[in-house]
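User: structure tokens for Glutamate racemase, please.
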Amino acid sequence: MDSGIGLLAAAAAMRRLRPDVDLVLSSDPVGMPWGPRTPADLTGRALGVARAAAGHRPDALIVACNTATVHALPALRAALEPGIPVIGTVPAIKPAAAPGGRVAIWATPATTGSPYQRGLIRDFASGARVTEVPCPGLADAVEAADSAAVVAAVAAAAALTPADVSDVVLGCTHYELVETAIRAALAERTGGAELRFHGSAEPVAVQALRRLGALPEPGLPRTGTLTVLLSGEEGALPAAALGYAEGRLLAGEGAPVGR
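Assistant: Done. Predicted tokens:
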């Protein structure tokens, strides 16, 4: 679940790890973006999306949204667990900070500077130099598959990123869909230095399988189905999803695609 197509990264990671699983993608085009909403309002929207997914009796629910994890994870777990394990998406700050280098955390303005993110930095990044980089407009540009707006938002965030950065945390699931553009912008910023990028899509998919007592088995036949829920109603993958490799991977299942 997510407000929009940011969930594609985790869904595609799960599809690659387990081609046999049936996936339900539950998003909220009517209520998005969630970032500018109050925590209480955001939590209400997230609960609606989660309950729509729960109606399909999933074995687990991945909250494939950093902002929703920050503000709504306790409410989601209270509503659905223990019947449905709820797995949140945590920015990969711990592995990024482990080498003790210069870490930049790219995140939405709602997540940047939040007590949640500051707590992760305090607990897991005390040995690294950390810069929080707000990325206003980037998630919206990704959602719309607006390449010009993506380039502009990425450039603005790159300008706030230290030139000596060694590790970059992609602290919003939408950003993983445009990692190539982010890499290109930061290559200019850092003079082509080799950077380590840290996303959450594959780790959260692995964690979901672990919670279910299952293992990645990427060699299995691709028999899994895809169901798309849009603000609670069954629908089609948004056309913008096909602008990304992850969306094309999922649409390859013969899923209906909106126009």
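User: Anything notable?

Assistant: The chain has a mean pLDDT of 93.
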